[in-house]
Amino acid sequence: MVLRQVEMANLARTRDAPATISYPGFSLCLERENGERVRKRYAFIVNVVRGAGEEPCLESEFDRLVASMKILPGSAKGAGSAGAAEPEQKPSLFQKLKQKWEDFRKGRKVR
Fold first, then answer.
1. Of 6, 11, 78, 86, nearest to 40 (Cα)?
2. Residue 40's closest CA among 23, 22, 54, 30?
3. Greatest extent of the chain over all pairs of C-alpha atoms, in Å
4. What three-state secondary structure class fits 102?
5. Residue 3: how many CB atoms within 10 A of its CB?
6. pLDDT per position in the chain (111 positions), as tens?
7. What is each CA distance from 72 to 60, 63, 64, 65, 76, in whole angstroms?
8. Coil/strand/helix, residue 88
9. Where are the alpha helices (DSSP H) in 1-111?
10. Could you give the CA distance from residue 20 to residue 41 in angstroms, rounded to a whole number?
């Protein structure tokens, strides 16, 4: 996502009005079903978000940085130290409440 000023046609029908107006907006690089990447532009007009067009999505600096990064051994999930035990996860609030309900239902002492 890129934040930037977006040029849109001026809908005001006056002689002195400029042909285009610059609005604050953003653009997103999306991939279509056929694999083509396209950058869609959107503009904030008062409290409405309007589509402002699209253009081909060029490779960004962020994409080049991600492509140049190397994956370190053991940093990917399931790679590296296969024998190492993963740290135990804490039960979620839902799991705790579910366990308390089960204990209550079965007549066990509720902690």
1. 6
2. 54
3. 82
4. helix
5. 9
6. 667 788 777 766 667 767 788 888 888 888 888 888 888 888 888 888 888 888 888 776 667 766 777 666 665 555 545 555 667 888 888 888 888 888 888 888 766
7. 24, 19, 18, 15, 8
8. coil
9. 61-68, 93-105
10. 15
DSSP-assigned letter for residue 1: -
Tokens of 107: 């007549």
The token duo for 34 is 């056929």
Tokens, residue 1: 């996502």
Q: In 50-82, which positions are buried (b, 16+ CB within 10 angstroms) versus exposed (e)?
A: eebeeeebeeeeeeeeeeeeeeeeeeeeeeeee
Q: Given strand 48-56, what is the order of strands in its sheet?
A: 2-9, 20-31, 37-45, 48-56
User: 4, 52, 51, 1: which is closest to 25 by C-alpha?
Assistant: 4
pTM reported for the whole predicted model: 0.48
Question: Token digits for 7?
Answer: 């040029």
